[in-house]
Amino acid sequence: MPGHLFSEFSPSSKDAWEKLAQKELKGKWRELPSWTISPGLTFEPYLTRQETDSERIAEMQQSQKKNPGWLNMPDITFTDPRKTNAAIKNALANGADAIFLNLRDTELNRCEFPKLLHSLRLSDTPVFFQTDKNSGQLFSEISKHAGYYLKGGVAFDPLAHWMRTGTRYESSINAISELVHHTKSMREFRPYMIETHLYHNNGADPVQELAFAIAATATYMDLLTENGVAPLLAFNRALFSVSVGTRYLTEIAKLRAFRYLLQRISRAYELPDELCVPFLQARTSSFYHTRTSTYTNMIRASSEAMSAVIGGCNALTVQAYDLDSANRGDFSDRIARNVSSVLSFESSLGIVADPAAGSYLLEDMSCKLADAAWKSFLDIEEKGGLIQCFESGFIQNELQKSLAQKVSALHQGQVMVGVNRFHQPTERNDAGAKTLADVATHQFTLLNDRRLSDYFHQQSLSKK
Questions:
Q1: Cβ-contact 14, 48 below 8 angstroms
Q2: Whole-angstrom distance, CA of residue 155 vs CA of residue 336
Q3: Would 358 be classed as within a structural domain?
């Protein structure tokens, strides 16, 4: 086979491509954008092979998911046992492969698990129970009629919960350790979660989001191994849950960089690469949802979902476009499920394990994002680690600065569809809007999940 597929065409230099772009784009050449991911990390709009590091690219590709496809995992909020059971069955009959069941504010004795899980086989269908209640009690309830092997897990991040509420995490670490030991033969049951949502929803840029998530991973590895959990169990039994935002190419690179960084953590514990199988759930962003122009959220989530699957998620949760509506019904849930189904059945993205591999720009972005995040992670470690950095206010201050930059960008002309452009006047609804003043600025201030559009609406009104 010849060295070049089309040997009759001579290779073109980057200068030649640039001259052609100038000719084709004419006066718009200067408008060709670059990507600024975080302070000091900017990418040009195109890249050539000569500008890439082939060894680094091979290393990045080696860390990626080996099996193609993903689970369509819709988010279902518990209401009452029978209605929720019906909603789960309906989702599974109409495209879902797994369920993310939100029990967050529900006492476990209200769930009536025999009714809630009636005719569901947890050995076949992964169900992740999102709750901050006793994980041991939860497992006891769901395993009574589920046989000896369960899939799914407990979607609870004690450190993130501590940062939100101030509730200490130590007792939860003990409960997770016991549950990991109890379920050690259940390779597809994950007793705890490591999330990026808290950082993402407070305005973190991708470098910060990755750095804080890796710092959380290192913290859990330390806490669990100190509690007697084997490092390989501690690593493989986590559900890594990642928010995916609107910057299409950046978010693809972010997920790929996350897998690479997780491999660096596992290697630090001298774990064999072939035995480490991190499970990544990607969730479309609520931070970029607007409470107005809700149909726009549907389009936004479709772009985010594409980033998630091209980036290599194991499970995809597409959030409903009317996420905050008290009248949310089956239509929005069905549309959210179908976004994943269309990508799976009609795009062919599910037949390749790493669809982004080979793109010079995406490979370079993945590598440099990972390097910047690792550098930031080491800075966090030098300051005492994630827990110390939160107690000192370092994390809150970093998030505040990043959020302020995002709000400022909207006021300086960056477009957010349905928020500062392309919305109907009647769609404006600023109830509950916030100001930047409530963002953490002092030591040990708790974090809250936020929406970017809320700050734009509030500041816009304040100028009138």
A1: yes
A2: 20
A3: yes
Give me the domain span that covers residue 232: 62-362
Task: Give per-residue pLDDT as tens, 172-202.
Answer: 999 999 999 999 999 999 999 999 999 999 9
422 lies in some domain? no
Name the token pair of 408: 């400022």
Q: Are 307 and 362 in contact (CB under 8 A)?
A: no
Query: How far, in Å, CA of 25 to CA of 28, rounded?
Result: 5
H or E element, residue 179 = helix 170-182
Indicate if the pLDDT at residue 424 is higher than 70. Answer: no
- Burial class of 47 by CB neighbour count within 10 A (0 to 12, 13 to 18, 19+): middle
Q: What is the DSSP letter of 4?
A: S
pLDDT in tens, 385-421: 999 999 999 999 999 999 999 998 888 888 888 888 8
Rounded Cα distance, 434 and 355, in Å: 39
Query: Are residues 213 and 159 in contact, defined by beta-carbon separation less than 8 angstroms?
Result: no
Instruction: Indicate if the pLDDT at residue 29 is higher than 90.
Output: no
Distance CA 276, CA 267 (A): 9
Q: What's the domain count of the chain?
A: 1
- What pLDDT is stored for residue 440 in this prediction? 40
**Two tokens at 99?**
């369920």
